[in-house]
Amino acid sequence: MEKKEKCPRYKLNSETCNCTYPSCPRHGICCECIRYHRQRGELPACYFTEEEEKTYNRSIEFYFQRRFKK
Predict the structure, then answer these.
(1) pLDDT tens per residue, range 18-32
(2) How far is 56 from 23, CA to CA, in rounded Å?
(3) How much of the chain is in helix, strand and coil states, percent to nearest 5?
(4) What's the predicted TM-score (pTM) here?
(5) 61 phi and psi, to 5 degrees?
């Protein structure tokens, strides 16, 4: 059984997931996405605006730069 089939919220999550990475194996599987990005010191796409997400810069530093501009 594929991971997507095991996630009871996969369909609902996929409808609101704003990740634009074309071959993301975690699309719609939020718990795996969060775990993956957390291990890398990053935030998942859902923390970013559509414009920001398209940069693929998931760093926490980028997130704070965009939110707390001086």
Answers:
(1) 999 889 999 999 999
(2) 13
(3) 50, 5, 45
(4) 0.82
(5) -60, -45
